[in-house]
Design a protein that fits this description.
globular; mainly alpha; two-stranded antiparallel ribbon; 270 residues; 61% helix
Amino acid sequence: MSAPPSRSRRTICLVALGLCLGGMPAGADEPALDAAAPSIILGDQTPADFLDLIGQRTKARWRLLFRPPPPTPPTDRGRAALLLGGLMADSFLIWQAGDSQQFRNNNQEVLSYCRMLGLGEKLLPRLMAQGKMAESNEWKELRSEIVDSHQVLIRMLREQKDDDLAVLIDLGLWLRLLEIVSSVVVENDTVEVRPLCIGSPVILQEIRDDFNRLGMPKHEEPMIKHIGAAIEEISSLWRSAIPTAPTAEQVIKTHEKLKEIMQVMLEKQP
């Protein structure tokens, strides 16, 4: 049976009309669009598109969302894949901030985790090229490159039949992206901005679908069980919500659960 296609793109709603994607990083001081702007639905969006949307719809101080580097890559390949996904999400975050030194530092961590999964040498030329693009402020080219490298990594893992690792990288990436976005929404809490906390209900459903594609042995691991339970709690928070009018409490609880997931990923398992 062939492996399912990569689900590294997500359907994102509430995209402002006239949004121009693919330009320079938004930057910490760029003003948000009018919250009352009309919206359309765009499908099949990349992580870069997702953060573009957030930066256009609200005031996002991206640099304040940087985090310390993760621990030394663990021997547990599943946890390493989750953390690698989070690092790849950080690449998109740092691109938004336009911080070349932070990008190069993060890319070194990405390389370390790729090496732990046996893909370091295959991805080394690509990661080195990305570092040079950041150093030269070639932001438009770098945006396309980090989108493509994510796709290439997922494809490599699927080709070598490491489907669980591919799923875990995508989970780590999108859960970290949601943690980033929920932080922005908590800081800019308004009725208009709250729905952006999860991007769209479709994003949550696709994350749940990805989680359910993990093999049964993986589902029995304590860390994976904990993450799965937290994903279900977040889904329950939004299942009964009116999409256009979530409460501040929902947003705060969602953010806390996402932070909890990130902490579980980082903690060494017994």
